Amino acid sequence: MTASDRSRSGTAPDRRRWDELLARLRPQLSAGAKLTGEESLATKTTMRVGGAARVYAEPASVADLQILLGEAKAHGVPVFMLGRGSNLIVPDEGVDGLVISLAQEAWAGFVPTGDGRVWAGAGLRLKNLCGLAAKAGLVGFEFLEGIPGNVGGALRMNAGAMGGWIFDVVEEVRLMTRDGEVRTLAKAAMHVDYRHCAELHDAVALGALLRPATQADAAAVKRQMDAYAQKRHESQPREASAGCIFKNPPGHSAGRLIDESGLKGERVGDAEVSRVHANFIVNRGRASGADVLELVRRVRARVKEAKGVDLEPEALLYGKSWHDVL
After folding, report:
1. Which of 314, 299, 313, 316 is nearest to 257 (CA)?
2. Which helix (H) or strand (E) holds 295?
């Protein structure tokens, strides 16, 4: 066994723990569910770096998800939800836990209710949400066009762009607690702020009831979406990335601080501070998770030295805490 094999699989007792979890779960899940061990996560993220999940699952139903969460809780296994992987960095050693993705079609519903509202499943891609809404002549989702995520991830992070936030159009959210209880919460009962929804910190978003601003001609909605897409194309890098790496400090733009600190083009291995937008770290082809983390540390240190500002990461360090590596 090579060093990289040991990094992926851990020690023999550790691997036995994950094999036992797989053996317990397989007979309980439906035939449509996916369940694997040592599943590569790099290919499931937009940054394209990092190792494997010790156990990976794609439930096909609410019952499957309840089984996964129940087994994890009963045996003290950490659970990590994975959306479209657009705002996270996976460490090279992978994730010691159960990674769950609502990637199956059952979670990607788009159901107009007939009263101007829409039910959107957690697994529905934001791009598809915008396209379907445009066809229905629904105005108010255009700002989400181009964000490479799904509805569940957007709810958890209160994703936003172009001056809008997903919770601007949310009426209620359906979620599952880590105990397997399905609940529906009105927006007014939830605690939402910049890049955070408290109720989804330890719960799984199943979907949301959305009410857009109004209705309009489908062609007009499409024109607005195209305008937003063009603006993103001109202002954001095309290379693989995890989106904005740092939060904007109060009164500042993280990208401007990084740019003014002379960091555009700064590079560690194949990880590089984008020359298009300084708050993006891009993968030039063969970057490792370690390359990205070292570049994050370098950028934070340089901005602190040059500007006196402590930048806090916005992208998630998947399976770990930033405090462990910064």
Report:
1. 299
2. helix 289-307
For CA atoms 19, 20, 22, 23, give the dihedral sign: positive
Query: What does each C-alpha distance from 5 to 8, 9, 51, 88, 193 come to in angstroms?
Result: 5, 6, 11, 23, 41
Q: In CATH, what class is 108-219?
A: alpha beta
Token pair recorded at residue 255: 């990208």
CATH number of 3-105: 3.30.43.10
Run of H or E including 197: strand 196-197
Angstrom distance (rounded) from CA 299 to CA 315: 14
Residue at token pair 């509202």: 117
Q: Mean pLDDT, 10 residues at a time, over the chain (326 residues)?
A: 43 85 98 98 96 98 98 96 93 97 96 89 93 82 79 88 80 97 96 89 95 64 61 72 94 97 98 97 97 98 98 95 92
- For 238-324, CATH gives 3.90.78.10
Comparing CA positions, the residue from 81, 49, 94, 101 lying closest to residue 245 is 49
What is the rounded CA–CA span in Å between residue 96 and residue 101?
15
Question: Taking the mean position of all CA atoms in its chain, how far away is CA 326?
Answer: 21
On whether the CB atoms of residues 63 and 28 are closer than 8 A, the answer is no
User: 3-class SS at 216?
Assistant: coil
* Distance (Å, whole) CA 172 – CA 164: 17
Which H, E and C letters describe 130-153, residue by residue? HHHHHHCCEECCHHHCCCCCEHHH
Residue 97 token pair: 């836990």
- Residue pLDDT, tens place only, 131-144: 898 888 787 787 78
The residue type found at 195 is R
Q: Parse the chain into domains and list their residue ranges.
A: 3-105, 108-219, 238-324
